[in-house]
Amino acid sequence: MPAVTTKFTPDDQLDLDMFAVNINAQLEAGVHGIVLGGTLGEASTLMDEEKRILTRATVSLVDQKVPVLINIAEQTTKAAIASAQKAQEDGASALMMLPPMRYKAGDQEVVTYFGAVANNTDLPIMVYNNPVDYKIEVSLAMFDQLLKHDNIQAVKESTRDISNVTRIKNAFGDRLKIMTGVDTLALESLLMGADGWIAGLVDAFPAETVAIYELQRVGRIQEALEIYRWFLPLLELDINPKLVQNIKLAEVHTGIGTEHVRPPRLPLSGAERAHVLKVITDGLDQRPSLPDYKNL
């Protein structure tokens, strides 16, 4: 499932035309869902109405082919509940949900926060567990409490500790589905039992990303590994403070995006831009041929 970028025009409006180009490229490649308004979607910069516009537009574009998830990243429980209810009204299939923003909530506060939203929506919820970037970790003990809510069903596992996949499987079996959320640990996590991949570089390279997933799913590990090894320098653009700018620049070079970001972000410049461009152009120069992964 791609964590899609939000497309903007040069004058900082939503660019729904280019957004549709990218969504259609994702669907053509065979993705299994669309995740809106995450870190790559510049969630913290989006107005409430913009999130609703993106949700409705995506629901229309995918036309029930795959589920549409919208991320909830709010400062208050009241706002999170309201966002969940609006997402349901707008046709979202499920929610991805971060712990409370800004305030470093304690464990019981986080559990209560997630539980309150779960009690006020019918939508399935995927907990976004990313303590590296958001400073709050949802522990196994916390998940043990959260799984009393039937609609808390999955975790986006972004702790960067690959052994967490095994810990979660040992603790909860298949009750908590695991979506790996770190591109540079994706294949490793899938081979350790993760159920899926919320991906970043898929925004620019959808076919290669889906091919890795589908090949490993049917046990064609060596073929998946060869693509993954080619992909790794590009995937490392995802584990960087400027992942949004990096991936949007890659989208430009594969013809399915623009470089426009919402201030205070700025496009890459100078040596930083030159480095990222080299990673992208080197990857394109060595881009592998893919097997017929859609019919595995």
Describe the structure.
With 296 residues, this protein is α/β, with parallel strands linked by helices. Strand 5 (152-157), helix 7 (163-172) and strand 6 (177-180) form a beta-alpha-beta unit. The chain has one domain (16-295): Aldolase class I (TIM Barrel). A 7-stranded parallel β-sheet has the order 1-2-3-4-5-6-7. The protein has 12 helices and 7 strands. Helix 4 (107-118) runs parallel beside helix 6 (140-146), helix 9 packs antiparallel against helix 10 and helix 11 packs across helix 12 (270-285).
State Rg.
Answer: 18 Å
Straight-line N-to-C gap: 18 Å
Shape assignment: globular
CATH superfamily: Aldolase class I
- Helix coverage percent: 40-55%
What is the CATH topology classification name?
TIM Barrel
Strand coverage percent: 5-15%
Please tally the helical runs, counting DSSP H or I stretches of 4 or more residues: 12
Sequence of secondary-structure elements: HEHEHEHEHHEHEHEHHHH
Biggest sheet features: 7 strands, parallel
Number of strands: 7
